[in-house]
Amino acid sequence: ASCLVGSEMCIRDRVRDTAGREQEVKFAVAVIATGAEELSPAGYFSYGEFPNVITQSELEAKLEGDFKAKHVVMVQCAGSRNKERPYCSRVCCITAVKNALRIKKMDPSATVHVLYREMRTYGAWEELYSRARAAGVRFIAYSDTRLPWIGEKEVRVYDEITGFDLEIDADLIVLSAPLVAPATNRQIAPMFKVPLDSNGFFLEVHIKLRPVDFATEGVFLCGTAQAPKLVDESIAQAAAAASRACTILSRKSLESSAVISKVNAELCVGCGACEAVCPYGAISLKEVWIEKQGISYKVRKSGVNPALCKGCGACAMSCPTGALDQQHFRNDQLLAQVKDVFTYSEEVR
Length: 349
Fold this sequence. Notes:
The protein is α/β, with parallel strands linked by helices. The protein contains eight helices and 18 strands.
């Protein structure tokens, strides 16, 4: 992170290292790249009941060692595209096909079945699917209304294409579990005043027009922090986030919008209602000295950071004394517009 010296955009926060020591960090730009985690598919397809039911990441670890399975069955969508996680994890089908090819390359006599709902090896990865078919990997379609039954050494599945009930011997059963958002996302989001979607991933401003931006200026995102995606897609998005960050760090100063909130210190009573509702952390209470009739005393007054304020008007709505107004959108201006909308006048001829 970097800091624009002397600028209002400079933000301070505290971080803790692995030794538990805290230190203050100044930064002007933050890129959120918290990544994603593979779901532990407990409760799906007998995972945890039998030792030979594993995930794709566990399979990859076995492939690096002494792999001896002769009959492998892979089950797609183990925990995704359901009510809890309605999204497609994108990487699962490609990972399954890749690992199936690795198994066939190590032992061409091994049998590999892939039970799928829809194979989504999109783009250039369709060639990988074709190679797997040519290598003898067998693909069987199943429905979410008739899920495969998993036993310790046997898998039963209804083939949606042929209409037959199949029984498949299996030494190893591999579940393609989805990528899920880390639980820490819900702690990070309020720190940077950025939103999350219903699945716990970070939500950008606009998926097409501003795909790596948040509404909070100077905060960007990339990779699987936004949604499940492939490595090459994550790299492309990381390059975009870095480019957007450079547009800020390369400047000596930044222009902020003129439509921001302004405090009338005479009316402010320091209740803190505006600070509580501000979604961008732009308002803080400060202690100031007031002198009236020769008497000096200390009171709390609200202060607005113009570099952080987005002019949303939440503070003006919450202020009980009317001490806050949006510049160029004052309360009297807004009320005049409302009155004009509801004013009825009948023309007399």
